[in-house]
Amino acid sequence: MSLNRPVYEVVTITGDERGAGTDANVFVTLFGEYGITPKAHLASKSRTAFERAKTDVFRIRTHNVGPLKKIRIEHDNTGLSASWFLDRVVVTDVIRPHLRFYFPCNNWLSKTEGDCLCVRDLLGSMDPMDIPKYNKYVVSVITADVKGSGTDADVFINIFGEFGDTGERRLDNDKNNFEKGTEDKFTIEAPNLGKVRKITIGHNNKGSSAGWFLDKVVVDDMGNKIVYEFPVNRWFAIDEDDGKIQRDVLVGGSQPTGIVYNVQIVTGNIRGAGTNSKIHIVMHGSKGTRNSGQVFLEGGKFERDLTDIFNVEIAALLSPLSRVTIGHDNEGVSAGWYCEKVVVYCPFTGIEQTFPCSKWLDEKEGDGLIERELYEMVSLRQKRQKKHPWSLWIWTSDLAGAGSDADISFQVYGEKGKSDEIRLENKTDNFEQGQVDRFMVELPDLGKLTKFRIWHEKRNPFAGWHLSKATLLKTLTKEKYKFPCERWLDTNEDDNEVVRELPACGDVIAEPLPLLKYRVTVCTGTVGGSGTDASVFLNLIGDQGDTGDRQLVNCKNNINKFEKGNMDEFIVEAVALGQIRRVRIGHDGKGGGCGWFLDKVIVREEGQAEGAVEFPCNRWLDRNEDDGQIVRELVPFTDGQRLYNIDYHIAIKTGNIPGGSSDSNVFVKLYGEKGDTSKILLVVSANNLGNYFETGRIDIFAVETFDIGQINRLMIGHTNEGMRAGWFLDSVQILVPVHGRQYMFPSHRWLCKDEADGKTEVEIYPSEILDMEQLINYEVTVVTGNVMFAGTNARVFIQIFGDKGKTEVIRLESRSNNYERNTTEIFKMNAKDVGKVFKIRIGHDNSGIGSGWFLESVDVKHLIMALEDGELVVELLPEDAEELEVNTYEVCVFTGDMLGAGTDANVFINIYGENGDTGERYLKNSDNLNKFERAQEDVFIVTAIDLGPLKKLRIRHDNTKSHSSWYLDRVEIVDTKDDTTYYFPCNRWLAVDEDDGQIARELVPVDEAFMRQDEDEEGTAATLGLEQKSMSTTYTIKIKTGEKKYAGTDANVFAILFGENDDTGIINLKACKNYKNKFEQGMINEFTVEAVDLGDLEKLRIGHDNSGGSPGWFLDWVEIDAASQGQRLRFPCGRWLDKGEDDGALVRDLYPAELQTELYMPFVPYEIKIYTSDVFCAGTDADVFIVLYGRKGVCTQQKHLCVNKRERRLYFERGAEDMFIVELEDVGEVIEKIRIGHDNKGTNPGWHLDRVEIRRQLRKGKGSETTIFPCECWLAKSEDDGETVRELVPSDIITQKLLRDGTLKTTETEVEDALEIHTYTVSVRTGDTSGAGTDANVFLTIYGDLGDTGERKLAKSESNKNKFERGAVDKFSIEAVDLGQVFKIHIRHDNSMMGADWYLDQVEVLDLETEEVYMFLCERWLSTKKEDRRIERNFFVKFIDENVV
Hints:
With about 1450 residues, this protein is an all-beta fold. It contains three helices and 100 strands.
């Protein structure tokens, strides 16, 4: 609590009577002019508070309530001697001590003494001699003269007036009260309440005959001389009327405009958490002035780990609540109770609040309280749809057999929409002949009501029901609607229907809508096996509402319905629907031959000759055919029929909890801003795991329906059938590709009759809505020709090209047997909007027996906005589009001239131009018999629709043969139409075990002059890697396998990167840079991928081929670093890719998490050539690194040139020239110096370096600039000065520029003002204290305004053999390029060896060239045990002394 809150001092004086003291917990509530404080516990440190004749002082912090009017003092009746005789209470405002109030009591607070009250309201004044005046209220309670009307339970009353309430008072005197037909009188003393507004009266349901029928209550306010009447005339009984045992009654008994609060009480999951005590709750309004009074929560179980739900009706709007008080009466065998939390939802405001408790309410546990004040955790507050309370009265007719024992359901329609289907449980004897049943129902804001549908589902003898009428009254506005019916809902009466639609009548309705009969003709197809025996239902959806799902039972013209070729007629009676826009039709999938081929549905108004609307379907409703759906929404268009519905992909995760799986049928209903779907049974899953809703698995269902707009909530539940019906629902995810949205609905709860709150359906609101790539619907019609063997069993793929780009390659398949001879098949797919379609590519993968395919025609349609009226219309492809020209390309492939360069694998190429690409083509027929041999040129002919100027190509092999590794020198492509040659240099391996392990490369064309230059210089390998690198993007991919058991995989993993312009195609993740055994549990594997012009990355597809011993893989996340774009993206996954886990998928699409995206300065490519000298033993196997410096100390990170041991062995041999292309930070126009060194490891680490050449692309114009750094000395521990790190400065710069005429101009200039090499003498003084010296390795970095030395190991002390001993000074020499003014050092040790702790006194740096001395005072420990436990520190220069020589 904040400390600035006012403090009140509360002094209690216990009376001097026998047994006056109490052991109970005492509470006080202060009532002031500005409000009421929460109930405060008067807790004392000493155990002896409230002893006889004792004064106790307490301080309570709470909000300021102004001058006090009264206090409420009470105890919880716990402990051995609970009775308390209170003399008086004095309350002082500590901040304003002149405000002191005296509250005389002089009375017992006891269940057994005096008037048996444990709660008293005391009036006070500032004069201790004042005797406050209390008001007397005489309460007369009249019990009705009805059989069984009396009660033995304890009756309580609370009187509410304008100045507050009396609190709960038990009505008790020494006679037998509340007997049938009697009047009982009680006197209540309380402070003046002013005008009385309402009473709350009820009982606690104790005793054998607790049910009570109360006639009325009369309250006589003696002080104000007013009598108030409260007519009630209702049962207070669990098993009568509405089951309530407590009611709010307004003065005059006018029907209270009750506001319903849905209260959930969650008992904790702790041993002994449950209780048999009576639980009560008080809800406090936002100002704290209004409250619900004490409400008894009857009928709950309050068992361990269960949720009890209560609907509490209060005649006051309290939501949002400021707090709740929860407690119990401490009776029963195990009275102690552990309450987890309380959740209160008020439909009227739509606010759901959570009040965490997680404490015992038990006199033997913790602080011993049995009542607590709970405050809301605001972060858990939820806004839901607002609903208003209505009274629904239903009159059953007074005819023989009119009553029904069925459960009745209803649904209400208004101008603004419709309610949910609401079930009226038939628990007590509702719907009996000649009876009126009253229900409280919550309805959303529907505007003016238009119709009411009421039905039951029982088609058995006793279910028949004759409904006279229904009325709905909005309790707050008294708006009233009547729905006359006077008809049977009975399978043997009237028209044999059990559903009725009733138009709304009443004062607000000028003209009720007419009731119409619609004649529906259902035409079953003539395909083999078309008919069905399943139960068919239909819903007509019009402008003014819908009919709801109607079972098609009573056929007018056929006894055997839905047979092949039948046209079955049905009558659907409904309130006028306006223009009928859609028909939803389906079946329940039950029975042997339940698959059904529906031709069409025709709907017309009975008695109207014209105006019939035809809804074509022409599809299966069968789990094993087409898309497996057994419910369809039909639209009245023949053209592009499938484009008008939207796909909702619903992924349902069952919790990983024992017994969490369910055999029941699950249904879902989605609510959107444009409407809601019907209840959809999820019976056909898209990922087909066989057994649905199993523990820990995810089932995915595709639902096709009209566009409901943004989803704001969903209802999900199950039918509670089957052996194990109970179900633990973890979460629901809904992906809507056409909107580009993904919705997350967390649930994590039981839907089970026997668990938690016993609900089997629940409404969930989305916790987050993610933006995904937005797709559109395409309808693809494929006609297979009518010739011998025309059909295929292969997998068919399609790709669509338009003026805005191209779609992904999409597989066309369904559950039926596709591509048979002479068939027309229609597929719907979601893909990127490519704008105006100008070509498609369709093909197959040659799999299966009889894969050859004769394709007649393909038709692609999608919806566009029509210009005239903004309607969606089907865009057809122009038949007469000007023919795209076909062009021939000559592809020359040059294999390199090195050992093992040739390949026997199959090679594929895809050529990209400004007008699209050729698609992947197999390079089959070359002019050589044996293709792709070492140093050979192979020529292939590729014909394709003209691509325009070429941009790039992708070339790969399939790695299938034993000698698959291939060194590709270059590809040249001649465009035969305009005779242009494009040069694509490669000079790299396409091999799993060479270079970066990729067997696919993307190449970009370079100018001819660059190619020619290489041929002029003898013997140099092509140096065009830099140009290739600068036009492509290198992606470093890090893949983290999860930490779970069995998370790793032996399968072959692949990935595809999708950018806004293009994708990489399949990349086999074979060559991991850091581990040989990949994708092991908890491991992070790193891979390199190069691609050209993908644009910004939008998604990543990653998967595996399910091969190997344990292929299942748990992928945690993928990180992709694109250095040349300066961004690092994180793609979270956290899911299995495993046939037996999760949703069974082996491939996942991942999207970047925006919050985890890192942006930095983009890197640029450098080509670094390293010349090892031609002297004895010049080569090295050590790990070589390099750092580049620009002006003002701008430098790159330290870059290791070799990735692994194999490369370290290959490179830096005697006399070799090694080239590396690396991406590093941009250091600016000039490279001032470089630092190069190695880690002195490996067999022969000593290295003699001749020179380093660094080439970069020119910032302006085409060309490059090479800077030469001579070295010509050893980097070796055993040679020269023993240094393994050297700093080099440039000597010459060579520039090559491409001129306008296509020639290269080369210029060479000497570097004039290169920095000099300086020697720095470093003196390190170790402190003179105990244990100051160290045996660890010490490292130093010196920083100046022109750069730094990089980290150097202080290896060889010139002054001492044993370095860094206590009190000693050690001298070291460091050679480095001129640092300018030195300003700081960074010093650390590696904590190795036994005595690693080091006390460093000071460091002195002397620049021998300028004779400047820099002093660094340290005087700190570098230790993991002492001071702040750091072993690395920065120190800044203390002073610079000019006079030291």
